[in-house]
Amino acid sequence: MILGAQNAYWFQKGLDSKDPKEKVEYFTKSIEKEETKTAAYLNRGIVKSNLKDYQGAIADYSKVIELDPKDTDVYFIRGMAKEHLPNYQGALADYTKAVDLDPANTTYLFSKGLCYMEMEDYPNAIDIYNKVLAIDPNHRSTLDNLGYCYLAKNNYSAALEKFKKCIDLQPDLIDALIGITLTYYYQNDLVNAKKYLDRAKEVKPILKQGVNGYEIFKKEGWFYSDKDDNALKKMFVELK
Fold first, then answer.
1. Packed helices 211-218 and 226-238: angle between N→C axes, nearest 10 degrees
2. 54 in Cβ contact with 24 (< 8 Å)
3. Closest CA to 108 of 66, 136, 68
4. Which of 116, 175, 217, 235 would bridge with 121, disulfide CB 3.0–4.6 Å?
5. Within 10 A of 91 (CB to CB), how many other CB atoms are there?
């Protein structure tokens, strides 16, 4: 993109500044001084997203899309901003558009599957995650999430298959270890449930503190459904 002299000056200041609010100001000046605004809108939107001004970011990303309707990445990041609001239907529409423009992009597909999962639409999440695996059979995050989708549908054999493949690829993946533990626990196989819970404790020693450790662990950003959360709390008491 060729920028006018004044636009290039403010645009570069926006890139160079370490202060997020200054960045917004500089990119705004860049937009005001040049007809070619796409890069400035995009960068200002990214800064606004980092500032958690998701509505402002969405407005800037929408401007980029007006100027370049085939920019797949902008649909994707606008979807991410919408998801933060949360506006899952809006996010899903943007992820779908990104996938339509780039069907083999596993990042777009994975995010679309995750959006369905957050909406508790497990059949559609499973369908999308399987499309990811058709492109990349060893996509660990997809295998892990797919395990939890099958777990939510009480399809324990399929859940175990995905979690175990995940662990084969990454033995210390804590979320998959907890998923296997839950799957065995729901089947009342307490021997195997304890075996994998003990492995999870070795990976995350804080879990050795039982329920209190589990609560600290969740604050790192791990999230489980109400059903799974209650089961885990019981397990930390029962399977010492």
1. 140
2. no
3. 136
4. 116
5. 25
pLDDT in tens, 184-228: 999 999 999 999 999 999 999 999 999 999 999 999 999 899 999
Q: Report whether the peptide linkage leading into residue 123 is cis, meaning its omega lies within 30 degrees of zero.
A: no
DSSP at 240? -
Q: The tokens 């497990």 sit on which residue?
A: 122
Give, for 58, the enclosing helix (H) or strand (E).
Answer: helix 54-67
* Token output for 137: 């059979």
Residues in contact with 113: Cβ distance below 8 Å, sequence separation at least 6, in sequence order: 125, 128, 129, 132, 142, 145
| Length of the chain, in residues | 240
By C-alpha distance, which of 117, 112, 107 is closest to 139? Answer: 107
- Give the tokens for residue 127: 């369908």
Per-residue model confidence as pLDDT tens digits over 87-103 = 999 999 999 999 999 99
Least confident of 34-38, 58-62, 185-189, 223-227: 34-38
Is 93 exposed, middle or buried (CB count within 10 Å of its CB: 0-12, 13-18, 19+)? Answer: middle
Select the more confidently predicted residue: 93 or 16.
93
